[in-house]
Design brief:
Length: 288
């Protein structure tokens, strides 16, 4: 099975062009499944539907949520579909299995006042402050995922048309920049980034203080730092800024189709969850 898993993961990386984070998720799930089969002396090529259901029962008994079980099923199903594609097995034991129902959680959203307070924290008085202000303004103004933001290169920003080109997997979308985000980003690109980078060939848009491409962890720590500086009680992550972006767009009259396109949702049902926040916030209005 080890050989087939190795080939499966190579297929996902080279043929399916999955992102590193998605690939790691697949790898984690399939290796955990492999351990279960070893512990129970089961042959992956001879599994039945009941065998896989017993595995999911064990996950439930270990306190795993339906969302985790659903993700595991998707991984295992992809593995067996790959085995059929490569003619290693003749029948897919997952073909009749149904994913457990997942209750859609209401995303955590900041009010307009909380967003303003957060965005006011970085001070444009040094290199770090200039970069951080640009990052927070950019994250809120585009609604991009943190993985998308940290993988942006300098050439992905088109200041002449005031848009950023975001490529995720095989899909590319152009997202408009708001006036405030454009101003903060220009300030960073023209005055801070040239000093932060150690090599003129550096492509990364956002870099750390050592001049290297910023990481997910680095981005998260920056958001957490300014959240504490703003004395906001809510848990704020880069993804909360994405939720807030979508919610505030809807509150300011944008339609769901436009928001779906900007967020990169393949299914509008993922966007519709923001409709419950349509009533406008009381207080200041944030420019989007």
């Amino acid at each position: 099975m080890e050989k087939q898993i190795k080939l499966f993961l190579e297929f996902l990386q080279n043929d399916k062009k999955l992102s590193d984070n998605t690939l790691q998720s697949y790898q984690r799930d399939i290796l955990q499944f492999q351990d279960y089969l070893k512990d129970n002396d089961l042959n992956y090529a001879k599994l039945t539907e009941d065998d896989i259901n017993h595995y999911f029962d064990e996950l439930r008994n270990n306190g795993k949520k339906n969302s985790t079980i659903s993700r595991n099923l998707a991984t295992i199903r992809s593995f067996y579909q790959y085995l059929i594609k490569t003619k290693k097995i003749a029948k897919d034991p997952t073909s009749n299995l149904q994913s457990p129902k997942i209750e859609k959680r209401v995303p955590s959203v900041l009010t307009s006042e909380e967003v303003e307070l957060l965005l006011e924290q970085p001070k444009d008085i040094d290199l770090k402050g200039t970069r951080d202000k640009a990052m927070l303004e950019f994250a809120y103004a585009t609604g991009m995922k943190v993985t998308e933001i940290i993988h942006l290169d300098i050439q992905d920003v088109d200041f002449s048309n005031n848009v950023v080109q975001c490529t995720s997997g095989k899909k590319t979308r152009n997202i408009p920049l708001g006036t405030l985000a454009e101003k903060a980003l220009k300030e960073y690109v023209e005055k801070a980034r040239p000093i932060l980078i150690k090599d003129d060939n550096t492509k990364a848009l956002f870099v750390n203080l050592n001049g290297s491409r910023l990481t997910r962890q680095g981005f998260w720590k920056i958001v957490k730092y300014y959240k504490e500086q703003a004395h906001i009680d809510k848990d704020i992550t880069p993804h909360v800024l994405r939720h807030s972006f979508a919610t505030h767009l809807l509150q300011n009259g944008a339609d769901l189709k436009s928001i779906q396109a900007m967020l990169g949702h393949s299914d509008i049902s993922s966007t519709q969850i923001y409709a419950q926040f349509k009533a406008p916030n009381v207080g200041g209005k944030v420019e989007l």
